[in-house]
Design brief:
heterodimer; A: 318 residues; alpha/beta; six-stranded mixed sheet; 37% helix; elongated; B: 323 residues; mainly alpha; globular
Chain lengths: 318, 323
């Protein structure tokens, strides 16, 4: 059942002496929402271009739906919809004309193309702007039109390269919901590349953390936190205020079984623990006579994963 | 409407889209406006001076009256073919200067190339679209001038005159295609459309104005006092200057059109007295005229093909990135 639709085997891409992608291995399963996460310049876009056959890898092999992208890019491009970062349209054509053009390039007749263009513009919420010139579209509308443009060819896989950069938060939320909906309803495999942690976390089933052309960790969000945080899967942050009596709170807290580290930033205590001991911590703080303003058990977000990785890297460099 | 269900090949879809882009663009409308204006202007001067031309014709026994429509001028306004050789390049440059780089700047390149088309489809289709636009425009203009001339002077062209005009139009299309390819080449090389447009215009100005001057300077510098020269030396000297001149596509074109439109032109280089003696001073038949300009035509086509091949190779190797 879980066939692999995208397989990158040991690919390397060099630009002169600079290695953009370094012996990369990625496997993406059917109907999965896969997040490719990494800072700018990590080689995400290069990897995507190699999947589409727009750039040739220096070594290694790329196969999409069992087709080799390097030797047979046309067949791959028939099955894959690609939304580039900051997608552009022909400004003098209307939204629907742009879509019809794409559809016809994919072998639709004019009538079919017009029908499905209207359908997909409705689906991405642009039904009021069908006959507006694409040059008059706002950034968010352009991204939606881009999504319609990707969907109109009825792809098996869609690849979105930084699709949310430059859209306001509401727009981002709608856009992400749309992607999840599409992937669930139509069983489309989605590859989502981003440098934004929260967005990837919201939508992706599986993700790969990508830095300097290498995948440093992959799995789902929980897997990643276990891999990267090992013995400290929980962080509890407590907002306290001292009311005069300066009890040695940190000493008290450390006595609780499972608490491993305590980091104090002014009035906030970040307590790392190997198991969930939130009630005990609350009891200790209250008993110590301090004001407990709030107590929050942090889920491991990608922020932490990210920070943790980069802290590690800095140490490594020293 | 009947073939709306037909599935076209991607190449022709791009071609039709590019053609509609071209003819809707302001720069094309402006260029066509200028060309049509000059075309009618030169037609007007030709018609008002054709009377003098006819009286001269009777002396020389030149039967090619109809061709005079394209070549006659009273000196106030250049004739039709001079205008074409001057404005044609500008038309070619204006059609091609942003062919490739505008796609990159708009961010449409990666989107189009991620569709199931071959990469060369795009550049071929762009060239083809502009070529079709140019061809239609030139044939329309040529036939317009012929039609109006026919009404005005009332003498129909002979078959040979007609063929000469058609070959002149074809030659003009090749000539403009050369400039089109040159500007497509610049549009592949330069990131900014403005840079590539300026480079194209610079090359055009160089060949249409400065090249002749430079050749004249070279000629003057090299030529010894003509009084002391042998006749063969003078002949070689002239030939050398001619060859230098023929490096310019503008010169190739004007050589070729002059021969095609003025059948009395017998040679494009210097002729010695031995060669001229015994020649009957009559116009050449079309076949001989074409033979005379064949090197020029080949040169123009070769230059066009070289420009296209270069831009093709550069485009195929270009890294496709989002903006």
């Amino acid at each position: 059942m879980n066939q692999n639709v995208i397989e990158l085997v040991d690919i390397t891409k060099k630009y002169g002496s600079f290695t953009a992608v370094d012996h990369l291995n990625i496997t993406i399963k059917k109907s999965e929402v896969f997040g490719l996460l990494g800072p700018n310049g990590a080689g995400k876009s290069t990897t995507i271009l190699m999947m589409l056959g727009l750039t040739e890898p220096t070594s290694g092999s790329v196969s999409v739906c069992g087709i080799n992208s390097t030797t047979n890019p046309i067949e791959v491009k028939r099955k894959v919809g690609y939304l580039p970062e900051d997608v552009g349209f022909y400004n003098d054509l209307t939204g629907i004309e742009n879509l019809v053009y794409t559809a016809r390039l994919n072998g639709f007749s004019r009538n079919e193309a017009e029908e499905s263009a209207v359908k997909f513009m409705k689906r991405v919420g642009l039904s009021d702007d069908i006959n507006k010139k694409a040059g008059k579209y706002s950034r968010g509308m352009r991204q939606r039109l881009g999504l319609a443009d990707v969907l109109i060819k009825k792809p098996e896989i869609i690849i979105l390269d930084e699709p949310t950069s430059g859209i306001d938060p509401t727009g981002v939320r709608d856009f992400l919901n749309l992607i999840v909906e599409l992937s669930r309803q139509d069983g489309i495999t989605v590859l989502f590349s981003s440098h934004n942690l929260h967005q990837v976390q919201q939508v992706c089933d599986h993700l790969a953390l990508f830095v300097h052309g290498k995948v440093i960790a992959d799995g789902n969000v929980q897997d990643l936190s276990v891999k990267l945080f090992g013995n400290e899967p929980f962080i509890i942050s407590a907002g306290i205020s001292l009311n005069g009596n300066n009890v040695n709170l940190e000493e008290e807290l450390k006595k609780i079984e499972g608490v491993t580290t305590i980091i104090r930033e002014k009035d906030i205590l970040n307590i790392g623990c190997s198991k969930d001991v939130t009630p005990e911590i609350a009891r200790v703080i209250v008993n110590s006579g301090m004001n407990l303003n709030y107590l929050h058990r942090k889920e491991y977000g990608l922020d932490e994963i990210y920070n943790r990785y980069f802290e590690g890297e800095e140490k490594h460099e020293r | 409407m009947k073939d709306n269900n037909k599935i076209m090949r991607p190449f022709w879809i791009i071609v039709s889209k590019e053609i509609s882009d071209q003819i809707k663009s302001w720069r094309f409308i402006i260029m066509v406006g200028i060309i049509l204006l000059t075309c009618f202007g030169s037609l007007y001067t030709a018609l008002s001076n054709i009377g003098d031309a006819i009286s001269k014709v009777k002396d020389a026994g030149d039967p090619f009256l109809f061709l005079k429509l394209f070549t006659v001028s009273d000196g106030t306004m250049p004739s039709f073919f001079v205008f074409i050789s001057f404005l044609g390049p500008l038309l070619g440059i204006s059609l091609g200067f942003d062919a490739i780089n505008s796609e990159f700047n708009r961010g449409t390149m990666s989107r189009i190339l991620s569709q199931p088309i071959h990469r060369d489809n795009l550049i071929n289709a762009k060239f083809m679209a502009s070529l079709i636009v140019i061809s239609v425009l030139f044939f329309v203009m040529g036939f317009l001038v012929m039609g109006i001339g026919l009404i005005a002077i009332g003498i129909p062209p002979t078959a040979e005159e007609f063929m000469r005009i058609i070959s002149f139009l074809l030659l003009s299309i090749f000539y403009v295609a050369f400039w089109l390819n040159l500007s497509i080449l610049f549009s592949v090389c330069c990131h900014q459309a403005a840079t590539s447009a300026l480079s194209g215009v610079a090359v055009w100005l160089f060949f249409s104005i400065f090249f002749d001057m430079i050749i004249k300077i070279i000629a003057r510098a090299m030529a010894p006092n003509p009084g002391f020269m042998q006749r063969t030396q003078l002949y070689g000297e002239q030939n050398f200057i001619m060859h230098l001149m023929r490096l310019s596509p503008t010169h190739l074109f004007s050589d070729a059109t002059t021969t095609l439109l003025l059948p009395s032109v017998r040679s494009l280089g210097p002729l010695t007295m031995e060669q001229v003696s015994g020649a009957i001073p009559s116009p050449l038949p079309l076949g001989q005229s074409v033979l005379l300009v064949w090197p020029q035509v080949t040169g123009l086509i070769a230059a066009t093909v070289i420009c296209f091949a270069l831009s093709y190779i550069l485009f195929m190797r270009k890294e496709v990135r989002a903006r």
